[in-house]
Amino acid sequence: MRNNIVHIGAGELTYEIREIVDVAEKLEKLGINILWENIGDPVAKGEQVPTWIKEVVREAVNEDKNFAYSPTKGLLQVREFLAEKCNSNGGVKITADDIIFFNGLGDAISKIYTSLNRESRIIGPSPAYSTHSSAEGAHAGSHHLTYNLTPELGWLPDINDLRNKVRYNPAVSGILIINPDNPTGMIYPTRVLKEIVKIAKEYDLFIISDEIYANIIFGSGETAKLSEVINEIPGIAMKGISKELPWPGARCGWIEVYNKNKDSIFARYVKSIVDAKMLEVCSTTLPQAVIPKIMSDPRYGTHLKERNERYGKRAELAYKIINSIEGVIAPKPSGAFYMSIIFKDGVLNNRQKLKIENEKAGQLVEEISKNVAPDKRFAYYLMAASGICVVPLTGFNSDLYGFRITLLEPDEEKFKQILSTLAEKINEYL
């Protein structure tokens, strides 16, 4: 090319959750039956969307207005509904004008980071969710900045680490929270959230809280939404219906902007996000339209409660089986539908293998396992030997060796079998 047309941050755009699918599909073609534990799609894993929710969608399809463009920020009546819902929790108050719809939170995440000044950085948790870490790193043309989550303490954030990194890096302009967390399943205790708000106030930062799993909580710990603890600090909460209804294919998410008028720079930043969205006209109308009717239905609370109970039982079972294995640390999840397991220091090396019955699959894994991170090597051997597809933890912008599994398998016996096989293979590998 006459000029280098590649963006300076292109190398930061990685998504291990789907990248490992390339290897899985090659193994599948060689005859390996893949058990997809890599991606958080409840519907793809067999969860049934309630009939009454489908009926609400069917009714909305019969209305011509739901085939039209919506306003750039989203349907007014839906934004009013969501603003009232937020305000009913206590804490900071918002109006419909403080809510902006996007085509899924992936779209929102992209707009939030690309609208930042190139010199401004957002520090987020590690292990990190790949969409956030890649978008932030790509925006800055540099590796994503992170604060540590501590597996020995149930994946709680290391507040001292966060404070020190904010103090000594003046480029940090905001703090990212993912609550409940992906990939660990940890929920941020209210006291920790308040400490993060204190840091933001002390260093004049804003806060982003990804709350896509906010209503998927089954642990006994106490947490809060950002709106309940943020006080007068500028902030953005990210929400959606993909995990909650669940309807991931709707690509429907929104942000709630807090205290926009408390800081003129933050207000201008939010305006730039709206301006960027305006260039796309709007987000998809139909999924927005059904939100008030679904979320105000008396059956919706029961729907969420039943789902949380199921995930809670699976979390208990996974913790019981995996935590008994020597050589790993496996904190029990409290929210979302993931569990992250790490290998203790020194237990992995580049010579470990699993017995692979399929000769061609064994040859493939032997070849692709050269010069990769130890946890990725384990994931490849695990997949070829058992069919279980997990995501290596180093794929989540982490220097910890481990992997993430989901709690989504609806067949209890199959879920037990997956866990038992996983435990067996870990013991065999170590």
From TrEMBL:
Signal peptide: none annotated. Keywords: Aminotransferase, Pyridoxal phosphate, Transferase. It holds the Pfam family Aminotran_1_2. The keyword Protein transport does not apply. GO terms for molecular function: L-alanine:2-oxoglutarate aminotransferase activity; pyridoxal phosphate binding. Its EC number is 2.6.1.2. Residues 46-419 form the Aminotransferase class I/classII large domain. Its cofactor is pyridoxal 5'-phosphate. It comes from the Bacteria. The keyword Transferase applies. PANTHER family: GLUTAMATE-PYRUVATE AMINOTRANSFERASE ALAA (PTHR43488). Belongs to the class-I pyridoxal-phosphate-dependent aminotransferase family. NCBIfam families: PRK06855.1. This is alanine transaminase. It comes from Candidatus Wolfebacteria bacterium GW2011_GWB1_41_12.
